[in-house]
Write a structure and sequence with these properties.
The structure holds two protein chains of two kinds. Chain A is mainly alpha-helical. Chain A is rod-shaped and about 195 Å long. Chain B contains seven helices and four strands, in the order E-E-E-E-H-H-H-H-H-H-H. In chain B, strand 2 and strand 3 form a beta hairpin. A two-stranded antiparallel ribbon of chain B has the order 1-4. In chain B, strands 2-3 form a two-stranded antiparallel ribbon. The radius of gyration of chain B is 22 Å and the shape is globular. Chain B is mainly α. The chains are: A mainly alpha, B mainly alpha. At the A-B interface, helix 1 and helix 2 of A face strand 3, strand 4, helix 1, helix 2 and helix 3 of B.
Chain lengths: 164, 261
């Protein structure tokens, strides 16, 4: 086995060259290149984590915006509804009031007209009586020549009219 | 691979051969085929990491592969040590990647070029011992630096009955001190055994084909070849598993040092 047979002749050379080579590996690769590669990996991991966090935050914000938008929409709708109801109620009340007023006016006018009508009718009645009395007196005078006083004629007309 | 006599020597692949003699302070530190493969590992690892240095926000395939490996080591330390484990990622990553690349480089089919032999750096006890000592030394330094002498409470687990206080610390101390040996031997033995097995099977294939009798290739070479495909795949898996085990155990030991059970 040359590893053991040659050990006394070769150990110095082996140690010497191994220490040189391993020292070079440790200091240039292990201490020189490796930290840069790791720093790059860390930076990438951090960037990915940051990006993910930013995306998460953005999603959160969007969610919040959506929620508040919906709430605002609902509020606006409710306000709108309330206003509409109010307007409707007010309009109904106005209409009722106006209707009542118009009703009252109309019935007042109707009452006035009726009373005037009654007055007119009474007047007409009265004038018909007098005309009829005059006509009766005239007719009596013409037919019999007897003079009938106006009062007599009127009472006779009244008696006839009451009958008929 | 071939010995002088034309026989196939499965141990020859572990032979260290000096390529350029070098002597510093009386020590023979020649540049060897082992050193060459360490440099190849370094180059391959550097190339691999360099491909992942584009640092795009959206990674490409290569960057994804590099980040997958770094993330894997990072996860391993974070899950076994906790958030403090991040400090030890460079060390564990270096150990893991060096072992993984060295294991894979030993499996590369460089042998198809005549005269070139792949060499598995991690199949040498001298190498795995240094790596294990690095791992164990880190545990010791971190443990004593963070906890001072309180670090010895590691050897008295919670809930030890008082009448076992003389025995448990001994066992714990033993299991603690054996860690570097188990780390070094596990990797060394797994790599050596796998490569010896592959080489022996390859020897069956070649010797069977060279045999005089016509029936030998069918009975020996073809089954050996089929078996070798499976063993090679298994060995690739072992390469990754051994690197993972070394890194995982190191992070568990660091957890002991940082959190004291």
């Amino acid at each position: 086995m040359p590893q053991i047979a040659q050990i006394l002749e070769t150990y110095a050379s082996q140690f010497f060259w191994l220490l040189i080579v391993f020292g070079l590996i440790y200091f240039t690769i292990g201490k020189g290149m490796l930290p840069k590669i790791e720093a790059n990996m860390d930076a990438r991991d951090r960037k990915i984590a940051d990006d993910l966090a930013a995306a998460e935050a953005a999603r959160h914000e969007a969610d919040n915006l959506g929620d508040s938008g919906e709430a605002e929409l609902a509020k606006a709708r409710a306000e709108h509804q309330a206003k509409a109801n109010e307007a409707k109620a007010k309009a109904a009340k106005d209409a009722e009031a106006r209707l009542a007023k118009a009703d009252a006016e109309v019935s007042a006018k109707l009452a006035a007209a009726e009373s005037e009508l009654a007055k007119a009718r009474a007047a007409a009645m009265a004038s018909i009586e007098s005309v009829a009395a005059e006509a009766a007196a005239d007719i009596v005078a013409k037919v019999s020549g007897a003079k009938v006083s106006t009062a007599q004629a009127a009472s006779a007309v009244k008696a006839v009219m009451a009958n008929g | 691979m071939a010995g002088e006599s034309g026989k196939i020597d499965p141990m020859h692949q572990f032979q260290i051969e000096p390529l350029a003699p070098l002597n510093i302070g009386g020590y023979d530190v020649s540049f060897t085929n082992s050193s060459l493969f360490m440099l190849i590992v370094l180059a391959a690892l550097w190339l691999f990491m360099w491909g992942g240095m584009k640092r795009d926000l959206v990674p490409g395939r290569w960057q994804m592969a590099v980040e997958g490996v770094t993330g894997f080591v990072n996860n391993m330390l974070t899950s076994s040590v906790g958030p403090e484990g991040k400090k030890y990622v460079p060390l564990v990553f270096s150990l893991f990647m060096f072992i993984l690349m060295a294991n894979f480089m030993g499996m590369m089919p460089f042998g198809i070029v005549p005269g070139v032999h792949p060499f598995t750096v991690t199949s040498h006890l001298t190498v795995t011992a240094v790596l294990a000592v690095l791992s164990f030394g880190t545990v010791l330094v971190v443990g004593f630096w963070r906890h001072g002498l309180h670090f010895f409470s590691l050897f008295v687990p919670h809930g030890t009955p008082w009448w076992l206080l003389w025995l448990i610390p001994l066992i714990e101390l033993f299991s603690f001190l054996i860690r570097p040996f188990s780390l070094a031997l596990r990797l060394f033995v797994a790599m050596t055994a796998g490569h010896v097995l592959m080489k022996v099977l390859a020897g069956f294939v070649i010797n069977g084909l060279n045999a005089q009798a016509a029936w030998v290739p069918f009975v020996v070479s073809i089954p050996s070849f089929i078996l070798m495909i499976g063993i090679t795949l298994l060995e690739l898996l072992v390469c990754a598993i051994q690197a993972y085990v070394f890194a995982l155990l190191t992070s568990l030991y660091i957890n002991d040092a940082v959190n004291l059970h």
